[in-house]
Amino acid sequence: MKLMTIYAHPADTITNCGGTLARHAEAGDETVAVILTHGGRIHPNKYAEEWRKDDPDAAIVDADVEAIIANKKGELERAADIVGISRIHTLDHDDAMSTVREDVVDQTAELIAQEGPDVIICDYPLNAAYTTNTHTAATMTALAAIGRAATFLKNLDGSAEVNVRQVFFTSYPTFAADALSVNGVRNDLYVDITPVVGKKIAAMDCFGSQGYDGLFARKLIESNNGEHGRVAGVNFAEAYVRHFNETHPLLPVTDAALAADPLTRHVTYSEIDLRASYPTR
Ligand SMILES: [Zn+2]
Fold this sequence. Notes:
- By secondary structure, the protein is α/β, with parallel strands linked by helices.
- The chain has one domain (about 1-275): LmbE-like (Rossmann fold, 3-Layer(aba) Sandwich).
- It contains 12 helices and 7 strands.
- The chain has helices at about 10-25, 45-50, 60, 65-85, 100-115, 135-150, 155, 195-205, 215-230, 255-260, 265-270, 275, and strands spanning about 1-5, 30-35, 85-95, 120-125, 165-170, 190, 235-240.
- A 7-stranded mixed beta sheet has the order 3-2-1-4-5-7-6, sandwiched between helices.
- The longest helix has 19 residues, at about 65-85.
- It starts with a strand and ends with a helix.
- It binds zinc ion.
- Zinc ion binds next to loops.
């Protein structure tokens, strides 16, 4: 299987689905990351915190946009190596992007046509009126590009149509364990990232320029992936909303459901002391 991620910022790929990508890489699947913006404005901790000092380091606070982008790309490349991303496509648009642009849809559709992914992972698009949310604009761009790539004709576009088989949305902000509790959309698929949680921490530790290393990496994974893991019955999980319905020949029951022991699951999914196992450097 070939997976493609399409996200607004470099670190989004790791925070949202880095564990899933690591598991697929270990299973021999190819993963490709598309990053729409350079991400220089999102959590610019390295630069903003230095500015606040009485005697700031000129080499840091005088960094221009090229230096900021180059540093962020270095962080991304190190993180990608850790989780096993095969290839990165960075489009380097300014992350002030607040709407869908035709030229970015074209660029993204061309990458979909070039790579031909089976599945795409991107953020769940929140309310599109909230235009300061670059993540929503990124997913609107991705969905438009998926639609555009599906209509490519070899004689007109140079490449034939690409049919993406499934889109998995990340970052949907609910923690419901069943279809009834929230009367609406919920995360309906979990990937157990417990076996690779150390890789996700190490990958997040690469993003020092935005303060994602150290304490934040552990906080995010303990709380967010930990709570999704509680719902999923495992120590740590990444959560998804499936875009398309699934078709099966028979009603499915998952291996995880068959293996679950309601009596002990809350104990077994609480076994790992993340901060003791993966201390900050
Ligand atoms: Zn982001």
